[in-house]
Write a structure and sequence with these properties.
Keywords: Membrane, Transmembrane, Transmembrane helix. By secondary structure, the chain is mainly α. The chain is built from 6 helices and 2 strands, in the order H-H-H-H-H-E-E-H. It has one domain. 76% of the residues lie in helices and 2% in strands. It has a two-stranded antiparallel ribbon. Strand 1 and strand 2 form a beta hairpin. It is globular and about 50 Å long.
Length: 163
């Protein structure tokens, strides 16, 4: 039997949604788009965080010793951080974008938190018998190595050679 080729509805929805944003961006000022979608992302993050909270608590009770539990924790952690970040960004914009906030250590906390969740995502497929498999360990090592290389390049590029 020949299987017909049909597009995945989720992929089609995502592509159309991304296109709709850029079409709207042609007509709607960027600050309005920012405020609207910060608020919508905030609302989405609230519901996802509360929806995944019971599973995350159960994962912690179970010791998060399987890939499935680690994925649950990673999903919860990503959306909890998104929720916290949206609160920060909405407040930051509402307060007039204070310069002191721009230079605060919290700016580095967001990508750090996403990295921690990402490491849970990378380790999850390799967890068996409460151990992380070597393939997952190498995925983690490569992720950190690539990030470190990019950080080194960015730091090196920002160092002034003129004395």
């Amino acid at each position: 039997m020949i299987r017909t080729i049909t597009p995945n509805r989720a992929v089609v929805f995502a592509v159309l949604a991304f296109l709709a944003y850029w079409i709207a961006a042609l007509f709607v000022p960027s600050l309005i788009l920012r405020d609207v979608f910060n608020s919508l992302a905030f609302g989405t993050a609230i519901i996802i965080t509360f929806t995944w909270w019971p599973s995350a608590v159960r994962a912690l009770r179970e010791g998060a010793d399987s890939g499935e539990w680690q994925l649950i924790l990673a999903i919860f952690l990503v959306w909890f951080v998104v929720l916290a970040q949206r609160i920060y960004v909405i407040t930051f914009n509402w307060m007039g974008r204070p310069e002191a906030w721009s230079q605060a250590p919290i700016s580095g906390f967001w990508p750090y938190s996403y990295m921690i969740a990402g490491l849970l995502f990378l380790s999850a497929p390799g967890v068996t018998d409460e151990r992380i498999g070597s393939r997952a360990v190498w995925s983690i090592v490569m992720a950190v190595a690539i990030g470190s290389l990019i950080a080194g390049i960015l730091i090196g590029a920002s160092i002034s050679t003129v004395g």
